[in-house]
Design brief:
The structure holds two protein chains of two kinds.
Chain A lengths: L1 H16 L3 H19 L7 E7 L4 H11 L4 E7 L2 H9 L5 E5 L3 H7 L6 E4 L4 H24 L26 H32 L1 H6 L5 H31 L7 H24 L4 H18 L11 H6 L4 H15 L7 H21 L5
Parallel strand pairs in A: 1-2, 1-3
Antiparallel strand pairs in A: 3-4
Helix pairs in contact in A: 1-9, 2-7, 2-9, 7-9, 7-10, 7-11, 7-13, 9-10, 10-11, 10-13, 10-14, 13-14
Chain B lengths: L5 E12 L2 E12 L3 E6 L5 H8 L7 E6 L2 E2 L4 H7 E4 L11 H11 L4 H15 L14 H12 L6 E5 L7 H16 L3 E6 L2 H5 L3 E6 L2 E6 L1 H7 L5 H9 L1
Parallel strand pairs in B: 3-8, 3-9, 6-7, 7-8
Antiparallel strand pairs in B: 1-2, 1-4, 4-5, 9-10
Helix pairs in contact in B: 5-6
Classes of the chains: A alpha/beta, B alpha/beta.
C-alpha cells in the first residue's frame, strides 16, 4: 500500500506539472458541451425550397402563400421552369423543389383532384423523409381547406380514431437533452482511453519503465498507479461537463448523482484498463494512439449515441454486447433523463463491472516487467 | 581482500534472439565486494547479459543465481537486493532531484527517516544540496549520471549493475564517478559494471572480456596484462580482439 502511495504521488506530480494537462482537463469538456451538443443534432430547423409555378392562378398563389407562411420552409421563388429548380438542387442551394403544373387551378375546381410534383434531395435519407413529410402536411392541410369548405360543418368531422399522445421524459422533444448525456460519455471515454495509455507508453519511450521494472514494484501497483489519477480526472471532467450541460441547456438531472458517479467510476476503470492494455502491447505513442482511436470510433458509432441501436442489423446489435459505450450511454440517458434507479439499470451495471474486472486483470497480466 | 564468496553465479547462460546468439554459453562468478568489469565492443552481448541478471530479460537457457536467489523463480526477491543504472538515462526528467529520490526510496520500501538521512548524506557528498528542488532535466549530463548512480544504491542493495555508466561524460566526471563506485564498494556493495573504456577496465578487480557473445578472457587486469604481455588493458583488448 505504501508503494502505491509513492507511485500515485509521483504520477500526480508529473500530471500536474505537464503544461498541456490543465487545458486538456478544462477545454475538452467546454468544446464538447458547448459546440458538439449543438452540432450533433438530427433536428431539421429549416429547409430551402425551390418553387416553380407554371399555373400563376389564384389557387397556386394560395398554396404558395401557405408554404411561405410556414417558418420551416425558406422559399426560393421567381423560377421560370423546373430545369432551374433541378439546377438549384444539383448545386445544393435547395433541399426540395415543388413544381405546380399548368392546369392546377382548373383541375382543382373542376375535377376536385390534381397533382403537384415534389423533388427531394435524398442524399441524407432521414432529412429527405422529414422535409417531404412536412411539405405533404402543408399541402394536405391546404387541400382540406379548399376541398371541404363548401360542405356543412357537421359533416367535416372525420370519423377516425384520434390519437392523443404525450411525450414522456422529454416532453418538448429537446434534442439537446438527448445528446448532452451521450456527449458526456464520449468526453470521459476519451479521457480514459487516451490519457492513461499515453502516459504508460511515454515511460516506455523515455526508458524510465526499465528503472521501474528493476524495482520490486508489483505489476498491479504500477497499473493501478497509471489508472487512479485518470479515474479521478475523468470523474472531475464528468462533473464539470454536467455542470456545463446544466448551465447551458438546463438538462434535467432526475436520477441520483451518487449512482451516476459510481457507475461512471466502474465505466472509467473499464476504458482506462482498455487503454492501458493497448499501451502494454504498444512500443510508441503513435501505435497506442492509432489502436485506441480505432477502437474508440468503432465503439462510438456502434453505441447508439448518434443512431438508434435498434436500426442496426441483428448481428451488429449482438456485437454491442461487448461495447462499453453501449451500456454507459444507456445508463447516462436513463439516469439523467428518466431518473432510473439502481434496479432499473442493474443489468448494464453487471455487464460493465464484469468487463471492468476482466479488462483490468488483462492489462495487469499483459504488462511485463521482463521482456 | 576478496573472500571469494560468490554473489552472482552464472552457468551456461545462453540468450538467442531468433537465430542470433547474443550470449553464447557464458560461465562466471562474481564475488562479494568486488568490482567486476564486463568489457567488450558494442554488440558483444554485455547489455544483454546485464539485463538478464537484473531480471529485465529472460535467458534462453542456463542456470543463474543473483544475490542468493534463482533468476527464474525469485525475480522479485532479486529486485529488492539489486540496483541498476541503465545505459539510457532513466530518472524522471520532469521531477526534481528530491522528488526522484523520494519516489525511488519509497518504492524500495525505505523508512522515511532512513531515506531522509541518506538523501542528506548523498546530496552533501555530491555537492547538490542547493539544487535539490531543480528538475533533473535541467542538470548537466555528468551530474545526472552521478545522481542516477547514487539513487541506484540509495536502498543499499547487495549488488549494483551499471551498464556503461560513463558514456558521453568528460574524463574528470568519469574520475569522480569512479570515486563514487569505490565508496560504494567500501560500504560492501558489489559492483558489476560494463564499459568500453579500457582505462576503466584497470579500475576493476576482475574483468571479463566479451567478444561476439562469448567470454574470451577473465582475470584480474594485472594477470591479463602479464598473460598478453601488454603494458595496459587497451593493448590486451586489441591483442585479444585481433
Amino acid at each position: 500500500m505504501r508503494t502505491l502511495f509513492y507511485i500515485l504521488q509521483k504520477e500526480f506530480t508529473q500530471i500536474f506539472r505537464n503544461k498541456s494537462m490543465l487545458p486538456i482537463i478544462f477545454v475538452m469538456p467546454l468544446v464538447q458541451m458547448l459546440i458538439l451538443v449543438f452540432a450533433a443534432t438530427n433536428e431539421l430547423k429549416q429547409v430551402d425550397l425551390a418553387l416553380v409555378d407554371y399555373d400563376h392562378s389564384a389557387s397556386s398563389r394560395n398554396l404558395i402563400h401557405e408554404i411561405s407562411g410556414n417558418p420551416f420552409f425558406k422559399v426560393v421563388t421567381g423560377l421560370n421552369n423546373s430545369q432551374e429548380a433541378e439546377d438549384l438542387l444539383m448545386r445544393n442551394k435547395v433541399n426540395i423543389a415543388l413544381v405546380i403544373p399548368k392546369e392546377f387551378d382548373k383541375e382543382l375546381t373542376t375535377l376536385k383532384r390534381t397533382e403537384v410534383q415534389v423533388l427531394v434531395d435524398a442524399i441524407n435519407g432521414n432529412a429527405a423523409q422529414l422535409s417531404l413529410a412536412y411539405l405533404s402536411n402543408v399541402i394536405g392541410a391546404y387541400s382540406q381547406k379548399v376541398l371541404i369548405k363548401p360542405i356543412k360543418p357537421e359533416f367535416r368531422q372525420a370519423k377516425t380514431i384520434e390519437i392523443k399522445s404525450t411525450y414522456w421524459y422529454n416532453p418538448e422533444l429537446n434534442y439537446k437533452f438527448y445528446m448532452a448525456p451521450g456527449i458526456l460519455v464520449v468526453l470521459i471515454t476519451v479521457v480514459g482511453m487516451l490519457l492513461g495509455g499515453m502516459n504508460l507508453v511515454r515511460e516506455k519511450e523515455l526508458g524510465t519503465i526499465e528503472q521501474i521494472n528493476v524495482t520490486p514494484i508489483k505489476k498491479w501497483q504500477f497499473i493501478a498507479g497509471k489508472l487512479l489519477p485518470f479515474l479521478i480526472i475523468g470523474l472531475f471532467d464528468l462533473a464539470f461537463g454536467l455542470l456545463l450541460a446544466k448551465l447551458a441547456f438546463n438538462i434535467p438531472l432526475r436520477g441520483s448523482l451518487l449512482l451516476l458517479f459510481s457507475l461512471a467510476a466502474v465505466y472509467l476503470i473499464l476504458v482506462l484498463s482498455w487503454g492501458l492494455f493497448i499501451s502494454t502491447i504498444s512500443d510508441t505513442q503513435q501505435q497506442a494512439t492509432f489502436v485506441s482511436f480505432f477502437s474508440l470510433i468503432v465503439f462510438i458509432l456502434m453505441s447508439g449515441l448518434f443512431t438508434p441501436v435498434e436500426s442496426m442489423p441483428q448481428w451488429a446489435q449482438n456485437l454491442d454486447f461487448i461495447n462499453p459505450l453501449f451500456y454507459f450511454v444507456k445508463i447516462m440517458r436513463s439516469v439523467l433523463l428518466k431518473g432510473s434507479n439502481f434496479i432499473d439499470i442493474v443489468n448494464e451495471f453487471a455487464a460493465l463491472s464484469a468487463f471492468a474486472i476482466s479488462m483490468f486483470s488483462l492489462a495487469i497480466f499483459r504488462y511485463r516487467k521482463t521482456s | 581482500m576478496i573472500n571469494k564468496e560468490p554473489v552472482i553465479t552464472v552457468k551456461n547462460m545462453v540468450k538467442k534472439f531468433g537465430t542470433f546468439v547474443a550470449n553464447d554459453n557464458l560461465n562466471f562468478e562474481v564475488y562479494k565486494g568486488e568490482i567486476f568489469g564486463f568489457i567488450g565492443a558494442n554488440g558483444a552481448g554485455k547489455t544483454t547479459a546485464i539485463r538478464i541478471l537484473c531480471g529485465l530479460s529472460t535467458p534462453t537457457s542456463g542456470e543463474m543465481n543473483v544475490a542468493g536467489y534463482d533468476i527464474y523463480h525469485q525475480t522479485e526477491k532479486i529486485k529488492k537486493n539489486i540496483g541498476y543504472m541503465s545505459q539510457k538515462f532513466s530518472l524522471y526528467e520532469d521531477l526534481t532531484i528530491a522528488e526522484n529520490i523520494r519516489f525511488f526510496g519509497g518504492v524500495y520500501g525505505m523508512k522515511i527517516t532512513e531515506r531522509k538521512a541518506r538523501t542528506e548524506e548523498m546530496l552533501e557528498r555530491l555537492d547538490l544540496m542547493a539544487f535539490k528542488n531543480r528538475k533533473i532535466g535541467d542538470l548537466p549530463l555528468g551530474w545526472k549520471q552521478k545522481l542516477a548512480f547514487s539513487i541506484a544504491i540509495l536502498h543499499n542493495p547487495k549488488i549494483v549493475f551499471l551498464d556503461e555508466p560513463t558514456g558521453g561524460v568528460d574524463p574528470i566526471t568519469r574520475r569522480q564517478f569512479w570515486n563514487l563506485i569505490y565508496e560504494a564498494v567500501q560500504k560492501g556493495i558489489t559492483v558489476f559494471v560494463t564499459t568500453h573504456y579500457m582505462d576503466e577496465a584497470e579500475y576493476c578487480d576482475r574483468v571479463s572480456i566479451m567478444s561476439e557473445g562469448q567470454i574470451v578472457a577473465l582475470d584480474t587486469p594485472e594477470n591479463l596484462k602479464k598473460q598478453y604481455n601488454a603494458i595496459n588493458m587497451d593493448e590486451v583488448f586489441l591483442k585479444i580482439a585481433r
